[in-house]
Amino acid sequence: MKKIILLMTVLLIGTGIQAQTDVELKLTLRDGNVVSGTSKIANVSLVTDFGKLEVPIKNVTSLDLGISPDKSITEKVGNLIKQLANSNEQMRKTAYDELVKMEIKAIPAIAEFIYSSKYEPSTFTDYTADGVLSELQAKYGVDESVSSKDIVSIDYQYTMGGTYDFAKIDLKTEYGTLSIPKDKIKHIDVMYTGGGPADEMTFKLIGSKHISSNTNGGWFKTGIMVKTGQKLMINASGEITFASLSGSKYKPDGTISGAAAIEPAYEGDYNTGSTYPTYGNVVYKIGENSLEVLKAGAKFNGTAKSTGMLYISIYETVYSAANTGSYTVKIKVK
């Protein structure tokens, strides 16, 4: 995984959470099970190599949980692995059995020792260090690519590696509240619904990417879950130059300048007040697979017509990676 470490340049835009609110989480466990529910989390406290980073939960897209090595067992692990080369079979078996009974945090220590200059592979094939590692990985549902760091994804644009220091998550589900230990969790998807009028999130739509007709990432996943009837406010500003439309410049309300300005927009003049989107409009949809493209324009105040994840994009029926410019989009959900 490519990790982009940004401190000074990452702008966590938007006002702080006024009160701790229920956040919808989807937890993928190491055993393959998926559990969804709500939890009261305000911030993710990530300890990085460059200091501690407090990320508001509404800016967190997801978390991939690594396995932090337990330094206190490093010496013990090394001694037991060395014992696997002992000529006495019973001593080899005893060391092997003790290693495979260890907790999940022994996995990084064992892997680190195997790949170090201290490791001398045993000439015996019955009880091996590689066998120990494979058994523990299978036991805890860990693959070889697991990181020693927790990786937090911020605003669907940046990733940061560090340690998210928590012991468990108390998740309120339809079957009751579950306390799930960190070691059991592989991945967390965060679906922030917003807790009041002060909760505003800001996003940037890039003209060379976030185009509604771009089938490869054209729709920006905001991470905001909306429910039918919720008040939704979208305000946008900026300018896009469409290479696909003779290099004309468009604004979120559909205003155009340049070659295309002398021609009527294909779907209708932007001054008509039509609810149908025109070129350059900010548009939204609710749910990844929704086919209903809804016009937001430069300013939208309305209600969500369905329940699901909110996606936003820039309306154009032809996609060109040569487009330039961007829109800044602010969203509030009440």
In short, what is this structure?
With 334 residues, this protein is mainly β. 13% of the residues lie in helices and 37% in strands.
Topology:
Layout: E1 22-29, E2 34-40, E3 43-48, E4 51-56, E5 60-64, H1 74-83, H2 89-100, H3 106-114, H4 129-140, E6 150-154, E7 158-164, E8 168-173, E9 176-181, E10 185-191, E11 200-206, E12 220-226, E13 231-242, E14 248-250, E15 256-257, E16 282-286, E17 294-295, E18 299-303, E19 308-314, E20 324-333
Antiparallel strand pairs: 1-2, 1-10, 3-4, 3-7, 5-6, 5-10, 6-7, 8-9, 11-20, 12-19, 13-14, 13-18, 13-20, 14-15, 16-17, 16-19
Major sheet description? 8 strands, antiparallel
CATH architectural category of the largest domain? Sandwich
Cα-based radius of gyration, to the nearest Å? 26 Å
What are the segments in which pLDDT stays under 50 over at least 5 consecutive residues?
1-20, 262-272
- What is the total domain count? 3
Shape: elongated
H and E string: EEEEEHHHHEEEEEEEEEEEEEEE
With strands numbered from the N-terminus, the spatial order across the biggest sheet is: 2-1-10-5-6-7-3-4
What does this structure look like?
With about 325 residues, the protein is mainly β. It folds into 3 domains: about 20-65 and about 145-190, no CATH class; about 70-130; about 200-334, Galactose-binding lectin (Jelly Rolls, Sandwich), CATH 2.60.120. Helix content is about 15%, strand content about 35%. It is built from 4 helices and 20 strands. A hairpin with a 5-residue loop joins strand 13 (about 230-240) and strand 14 (about 250). Helix 1 packs across helix 3 (about 105-115). The radius of gyration is 26 Å and the shape is elongated.
